[in-house]
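S1.2 Input.
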Amino acid sequence: MSRPLVITDCDEVLLHMVAPFRDWLGEVHGIDFSMKNSDWGNALTYRDARGQVEPKEIWQLLNGFFDSEMYRQKPIVGAVESMTRLGEHADVVVLTNLNDHRQEARAQQLRDVGLPLRVFTNQGPKGPALKAILDEYQPSRAVFIDDLPQHHDSVGQLTPEVMRLHLCGEPLLAPHISCAHLAGHAHARIDTWEHALPWLLDTIGAPIDASEETKR
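S1.3 Output.
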């Protein structure tokens, strides 16, 4: 009989990304990063007189970060322990929106923090990629975790049977992210792993111990 399947995003779900990106921008490029809303296009400003960083430059900076600075990314509190716990009862894979040539770097990055997980790379909406993963694994049930509401919408449209948890573990970003649960695209919004883990265990039909039960 097939096992349940957990498909999780990486950045801001398993690993911090915005915070180390902000630190690198300030240290190396003289850029301040300040999130006032969900629009990254207004978040980056040069400290000299050049003003805001243009969108094209933002993409160049993001590529530079993932080329050389991924070592700065640290696990979100509880993420490694939660993935390990879920792995006792389900297959766990990562579906991350990075260019395909960074697949092995992402996999190694996760191994280095104690998460030897299979990594699928993707560009654009995640619904089609997730459906392909389901076709391969044929799980008894499946749950999807991501920090961005548009991916929950995409997954829900193509595979409505998949349970969807909206989780953004980065405090710099979480207040500015529209809630996929309130929009009807996710089954829950939980931004801390200590509270997300019991929900996930229950969703995949796994037993919950006493300490986890208190976090429900």
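S1.4 Remarks. The chain has a mean pLDDT of 94.
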